[in-house]
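ligand=glycinamide ribonucleotide
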Amino acid sequence: MKRVVILASGNGTNAQALMHKARELKNVEVVGVLSDHSNAGVLSKAQELNVKTVSIEKETTKEVHEEKIFHQLEIWKPDWILLAGYMRILSKNFVSKYPKRIINIHPSLLPKYPGLNAYEQAFNSGDKESGISIHYVDEGMDTGELILQKSFERLEEDSLNEFKERGLQLEHQMYQEILEWIANGKL
Ligand code: GAR
């Protein structure tokens, strides 16, 4: 059984898609969801699906915060850590504890538009297509080695919300595909 932990900061629609998919798959289990915000929507979504949750808010330094996260991960013992809208950059020290075992999803065709507000940046750029990237995490901001990238069209008549919604649907499909790869040992 492959053990997966999800780190998320917000609403948690990607985490939800992953947890649903994990229920269908035999050899993979989401053993916990960890958020850096105690009021994040992702926590209730996980609880509804009987997945364990922990919130660890940043109090003092990044170092202390990551130590607390690491302590929780030592309890959950993940084989894989999936970042699903986790809005912090992990330190080199943290990343080195899980080499090629931390994956992130980002809503742009990286290396375009790393960091925050990627949908807005892509939407405002006038690019005719945008996309979603899934990549291994290193200590940089959305810089790790790409695993999967897919594009979607930006329609002339799109509002920002419509554009984001189309992107999010693709995010969920792609992250579910990655979970299948994990389950099948393809990663
Ligand atoms: C998603 O669009 C995800 O790609 C993005 O945050 C959103 C979280 O949505 N992540 C980043 O921008 C990371 N740099 P969700 O909470 O509904 O899954």
